[in-house]
Amino acid sequence: MNNYRKIIMPFIVLIQVAVLLFMAANQEYILAAGEKVMLKCEPIDPRSLFSGDYVILNYEITRTKLDTITLKPGEKQPFRVNETIYIALEKPESSEYWRAAAASRDIHWLKSMYKTVIRGRIDRYRNIKFGVEDYFVPQYEGINIEKNLDNVRVEVSVMPDGNSAISRLFLGGREMRFY
Amino acid sequence: MAEIREMLQWLINEVNIWIKKGIITPEQKEQILKLYKVPLQADRIGDNVAPRRKSPINLARVILVLAVICIAVGLVIFYAANWRKMPPGLKMAQVLLLIFSCYGVSWYLLFVKKEIFAGRLILMLGMVTFGIGIMLVAQIYHISSHPTNGLLVWAIGTLLLSAVMDEEWGYYMSLALFIIWDYWEVVEYGNPAYFFIIPLLIYGVLFYRRGNRTGLTLTATMILVYYFQINIHWIGPAVSANDLTKKAFMYMLYGLGPMLMIAAKLMRSDKTMNYSANILSITGWVVFLIPLLSLSWPFESTDPRALLSFPEGTRLQSTQFALFILISAAGCLYLRRKGENPLIFIPFTAIAVILFIVPDNTTARMVSTHTAIVILIASSLASAYTIPGDWNVEKAMAFVFTISIFIVKWIGLTASAFSDNEYMIAYLVGFIIFATVCFLINRLVNDLSGQTPYPSLILDVITSIAIWLTIYIASFKIEDQTSIFDADTVVIVMIFLFITLAVILYMALLSRLKEKRTIIYLSMIIFIASGLTLFIAGEGISWICYSVVFNLLLLIATGAAIYYSTIIQSRMLLNIAVCAFILHIGTRYFDLFWDMLSGSLLFIITGVIGLAGGYMLEKKRRQIISAFDSAEGDHE
How many angstroms separate the Cα of B156 from the Cα of each of A1, A21, B73, B159? Predict the structure, then answer.
């Protein structure tokens, strides 16, 4: 083994660790600094090959019909699969859940009217994925949640640039904590 | 190291020859070998220079490998599912501890203890733990934005470390991760995964530097997959490509084929790239075959514009085509400069250009593609078997190319005969003429190959069986035929094209062959009789007329085969011919008597005739075979 490898190997290992730390730190930052919005969802219970059990969370805003909300004038071109989309969220006084109010490719346009904008991506089924659809749970715990699907809500932390992360999951008004 | 050892061995062999020939003295040999630090007593480099150890199966190593696999699997299962009731911070700490431990132990084993094998294994475990770390961080924070991103980061991290450590297992592991990532992106998300080419090129360099042929072959295959996934994405529904774009994609393959074949030939001179060259070569032949077969049917094009003007929507494909042709031409010139004969590739390149230029109306496309088919079959078989040099892949692929076209045409024309009943005779005879042309090309190449062994029997057998079966189908009752002259112009043009080609080939063969003409005359009888039937077929002509012609042809063909088997002393041909005879006679017998006799009487008479006929036939067949045996005995 060459000597330069003796030095470079730890350096590469540090880069790998830095990647993991960055992933964690970024999520922590979103959770700490983002605005909290409550979303209503409809979960199902699959299993991840790599990460054990998780609950797939389909939010009301996942199936937003773009023709029923405000769109940026002149933005006629339909959204393509995998294209980034920004959804402005608003909270009606009568409900605790946030809902989609407007959509655009232009976050600045939405920000000029709404305070909270979440970033998503159009999937192949024309739904909008926000990156907060998977909630990992310990093995066999997913089934317990699945039995009470009717009353699941999720608190999502949303950053000013639209990035988001799951903050808390509530089942029947009780926060689910697994540690 | 292996290459240096080979070179030194070559040097020792050479200096020994020089001494024998009196070019140098033994003292000078010593001086030369000293110069390269070769031990003086060595006659074989392996005798005294660092003997190359074969690595035997070592129980300790096997146990080590199994232990690492067990630990890895255990870690995955444990950390994926059973670490509940831990806060995120503690989980993160464990993940980092795991990674540091694995890499730390690996570093210690590799650089301090010099335990290379164990160190490499633990290094691999470290790479696995990096991936586990990514998945676990995603789990802790419920990250699901784009699951492939984690896989991509894992693959990049593994490749980076493997490249630094020159770790072969790591190359394979990271390549596997990149392939899964690419497949996931393309299939699940419909992304073209443009980035995939960068790691592939890196792998190409890394595997080449190590002289790893398997790795290079895998990389070459994935580069081809990448090329197609990108191009299919460009013409896929995601980008709403029109029919003209899809057509341009097919024509682009005409350019890609010869370029890959030539590139493979050039690569083959480098031993390290030998296997990957074969992959490229086979792909080249196949990608040329695909459009050639797909576009050789009489369908109306929705947009008949030629691609030469690079119409809107085809520029990407047309530009690629032009580039491929230029590279192919340059490759041919380069091959020539190197003293290699590029003759086999020139027709492919030239025909690709012609097909690209020809307007896409049905007649022009049919005539050009079929002329191309005939020229390419003839030129590829002839070139592969007559040009001196290493053309083994080309020899095999020339046959695969020919047989593929032949079988697809056979199936296509026979299916058309059954679906378009009024032109049944036309389709069947059309195929007989096409098969005759293929048969004659095979015979001509056999003659041209001279002393070079040419496996003409393969195509002889396939074409003969196909022609016999087609005549057999035509020998049934076929009624209400429409004259060929009432068919579309393209059909008449195609028939005349192939008749002309067959006539040219007959003239060439008969002028060259001084003996073994029987089989040529037999094919000529079938060709002329079925051709005449084709032209007289039509309204007012009874089915009996066709039936008589084709039944006579069957008898002539079967009789000739039995006769020919006695000439060439082939038991296999004799047995096949007897089977064909029984099938023919049996079919006609049932045709004739099915309606005339009651079922029971028909089968009783059939049984009696079968017993008597079978006894006589078998007796005759045995007589002929014993004649073969005695003839063989005489020869011995």
Answer: 22, 16, 22, 5
Asked if A178 reaches chain B (Cβ–Cβ under 8 Å), the answer is yes
CA A146 to chain B, closest CA, distance in angstroms equals 17
Compute CA A86 distance to the chain's CA centroid, rounded to the nearest angstrom. 12
Between residues A176 and B166, the one the model is more confident about: B166
If one counts every other C-beta atom within 10 angstroms of the C-beta of residue B24, the result is: 15
Q: Pick the closest to residue A135 from A97, A176, A172 (CA basis).
A: A176
* Separation of alpha carbons B150 and A97, rounded Å: 31
Tokens coding A117: 């904008």
Q: A114 to each of A52, A91, A164, A167, B293, how far by Cα in Å? A: 38, 11, 16, 21, 59
pLDDT band at B633 (very low <50, low <70, confident <90, very high): low
B interface test, pick of A6, A13, A159 with most B CB neighbours within 10 Å: A13
pLDDT higher for B48 or B362? Answer: B362
Interface of A with B in 67-126 (CB under 8 A): 80-82, 121, 124
pLDDT in tens, B326-348: 999 999 999 999 988 999 999 99
Dist CA B95 CA B90 (whole Å) = 9
- Cα separation, B36 vs B8, whole angstroms: 8
Q: Would the pLDDT of B117 be above 80?
A: yes
| Sign of the four-CA dihedral B203, B209, B210, B215 | positive
Residue A86: CA atoms inside 13 Å, Cβ hemisphere, count? Answer: 23
ipTM exceeding 0.95?
no
Q: Do B138 and A13 touch (CB under 8 A)?
A: no
Closest partner CB to B145 (pick from A54, A131, A179)? A131
- Mean pLDDT value of segment B519-548: 89
Taking CB atoms and an 8 Å limit, are B81 and A9 in contact across chains?
Answer: no
What are the C-alpha distances in Å from B212 to residues B163, B218, B271, B274, B415?
14, 10, 10, 11, 48
pLDDT digits (tens, 9 = 90+) for B551-572: 889 888 888 888 777 777 778 8
Percent of chain B with pLDDT over 70: 89
CB atoms inside a 10 Å sphere around CB B484? 19
Record: contact B134-A20, CB cut-off 8 A: yes
What pLDDT does A50 receive?
A: 47
Residue B632 above 70 pLDDT? no
Task: Give me the sign of the Cα torsion angle B301, B305, B306, B311.
Answer: negative
Which of A6, A20, A51 minimises the CB distance to B111?
A: A6
Phi/psi at B244 (5° precision): -65, -40
Q: Give per-residue pLDDT as tens, B143-167.
A: 877 888 899 999 999 999 999 999 9
Q: How far apart are CA B537 and CA B484, in angstroms?
A: 7
pLDDT score of B27 more than 70? yes
Check CB contact of A168 with chain B, cutoff 8 Å: no
**Burial readout B166-179 (b: 16 or more C-beta within 10 A, e: otherwise):** ebeebbbbbbebbb
Burial class (CB in 10 A: 0-12, 13-18, 19+), B500: exposed
Over range B35-43, report the average pLDDT.
Answer: 63
Query: Does the CA dihedral B78-B81-B87-B92 come out positive or negative?
Result: positive
CA–CA distance, B183 with B315 (Å, rounded to integer): 27
Half-sphere exposure in the Cβ direction for B33 (13 Å, CA): 25
d(CA B415, CA B427): 9
pLDDT (0 to 100) of residue B310: 81
